[in-house]
Design goal:
Elements lengths: L6 E4 L17 H10 L2 E4 L1 H4 L11 E3 L2 H8 L4 E3 L6 E5 L5 H18 L3 E6 L6 E5 L5 E5 L2 H14 L4 E7 L7 H7 L8 H15 L3 E6 L23 H9 L3 E3 L3 H11 L5 H10 L15 E5 L6 H7 L5 E5 L10 H4 L4 E3 L2 H13 L19
Parallel strand pairs: 1-2, 1-12, 2-3, 5-6, 5-9, 9-10, 12-13, 13-14
Antiparallel strand pairs: 4-11, 7-8
């Protein structure tokens, strides 16, 4: 009898200044390593996107942040695909030469990677992206014309029948700003990340279709002191290649029927009555066998100071999920497991987190690998 597959969720929240995963694809080595000991790795574009660079991870699911929240809450399931038809939305505010650079990058992805990118739509109005930094230090942003973005997405879905959408919006050039200088030198917060999340969230929430974003920016002057963690964003004119590669195999989103949703909410809500669980699992026969739901998650790996997101709060409520909080991935947040009442295994590094996952896969309680093991407690009446 084959053991249950190990499913791991890897989260590095966007725009919070994570020392690992807060730059240009610098969490990719972590994702590659965790994927080697997982049957399925579920993660999001902030982890896998590296501008011009990317790495194919066959057992990794590329799930946009809003969709990951819905998955963790049990509202959406993930349906693996062989290949998606991708549509491209370009902000009409992008200058003609910069538009052409991005279109050539798309053609390169079609010719060299064999991606199925079918159509491009220009927005009917400039998207007018503005960048912000919150009091907590996290980045965020606004879109002046969100309706224009949604009209473009609807056109691609209805007329071109695309199954995933890449967006390229013209972002403000911020050359000379302290935030950009810090980011290029491997410090501070990615000033673009929060606004990028707003764009993809809007499309995913409205149309329930995979989406990811790449900003259009003017090229920056060479900086001899550039941090290796930021360098992937400075080797070309576009960030599109990683987005297109990720979307090409991003899972589709499926929703349960009313009866199945009711059973699932009871299971994920902590009701352990076996008849409820058995009813839910029996009803699952209506779904494709490869569809993945939140009840399959075994572990979540998260920065120790960034545990306040919707996905981690949903998954932490399930006794079968091991939360692994990584201490040396510092962020601008201060939402630790202790402050939120989340039961988590605290580790110092991703190397240590990988060791915990190896133990879980082997069916070994991680605490049994230490020198100090407490005596068995007895429950009193």
């Amino acid at each position: 009898m084959n053991p249950r597959p190990l499913t791991v969720v890897l989260i590095v929240p966007t725009g919070v200044g994570a020392s690992i995963g807060g730059f240009a694809g610098d969490a990719l080595p972590v994702a590659r390593a965790i994927a080697q000991i997982s049957d399925t790795l579920i993660t999001h574009p902030n982890v896998l996107n590296g501008a011009q660079l990317y790495w194919p991870i066959p057992n990794a699911l590329y799930v946009e942040g809003y969709a990951l929240d819905k998955f963790a809450a049990g509202c959406w399931g993930l349906q693996p695909v062989h290949q998606n038809r991708i549509g491209l939305i370009m902000d009409c505010a992008i200058e003609p030469e910069l538009q052409l650079r991005h279109l050539q990058a798309v053609d390169a992805a079609r010719a060299t990677l064999g991606l199925n990118i079918t159509d491009c739509v220009l927005t009917d109005r400039p998207l007018q992206v503005e960048l912000r930094i919150s009091e907590s230090g996290a980045s965020w942003g606004t879109i002046g014309n969100p309706d224009s973005l949604l009209r473009a997405a609807e056109k691609l879905i209805k007329q071109a029948r695309v199954e995933a959408i890449a967006v390229v919006a013209r972002f403000p050039d911020d050359e000379g700003s302290l935030a950009l200088e810090n980011y290029r030198h491997g410090k501070g917060v990615d000033p673009l990340a929060g606004a990028e999340a707003v764009i993809s969230h809007l499309i995913v929430r409205t149309f329930k279709i995979p989406c990811a974003h790449a900003p259009a920016l003017s090229a920056l002057p060479l900086d001899p002191y550039l941090s290796p963690r930021s360098a992937a964003e400075e080797i070309g004119y576009t960030f599109l290649p990683c987005v297109l590669a990720g979307l090409s195999k991003a899972p589709q989103f499926v929703t349960p029927t009313v009866g199945q949703a009711s059973c699932l909410s009871q299971v994920l809500g902590g009701q352990d009555a076996h008849p409820t669980r058995e009813k839910f699992y029996a009803n699952r026969r209506d779904f494709e066998s490869q569809d993945l739901w939140a009840d399959r998650v075994d572990a979540v790996v998260i920065p120790a100071t960034a545990c306040g997101g919707s996905a981690i709060l949903s998954l932490s409520g399930r006794s079968t999920v091991q939360i692994i909080a990584v201490g040396d991935n510092k962020t601008q947040m201060q939402t630790t497991p202790e402050k939120l009442g989340i039961k988590a295994l605290q580790v110092n590094s991703y190397l240590e987190a990988i060791g915990v996952l190896v133990a879980l896969r082997a069916g070994i309680t991680p605490t049994s690998l230490g020198a100090d093991i407490s005596s068995l407690r007895c429950l009193s009446d």
